[in-house]
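Why does residue order matter? Because the sequence determines the fold. Keep that principle in mind as you read this record.
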Amino acid sequence: MRRIILCLLAVLSLNLAANAQPRALGMRIGAEGAEISYQHNIQKRSFIEAELGSEFGSVEGLKATGTYNFIFARPAWTNRGYWGIYTGPGISVGSLDNKFLIAFSAQAGIEYTFWFPLQLSVDLRPSYGVLGGEFYKRGRLGFTPSLSARYRF
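Structure:
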């Protein structure tokens, strides 16, 4: 009985710790496509970002991308809300045109979190990898800025 209570207390404390971290959910739209975006703060100066979406054009399929970003500057440009300049590595996996995709990504961007629960960001995220045994060429479009809008909770 004591083990069960200790396990329940451990699960409850981990759940409370996870819920204490700010999160954001929204959309990311860029030259490559549209994605559902989820952001989860790990510490004050880093966050994980995960996206799931499809690419524009005649490409069919889904692509999932995960990045681990480091906030290296928080300029005080406004009195309300706050800014963040970030960069980090990532990986993309998916199936496009019935071919397996694996690519390495790098992301760099700037975000503004309003004093109400809205976050806007502009970022660059090029990806280079392999799509069905060939070089993944569409990843170069990541050098075109993408816009994200997220509800922060």
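Strands lie at 23-29, 33-43, 46-55, 61-73, 82-96, 99-113, 118-124, 127-131, 134-135, 146-152.
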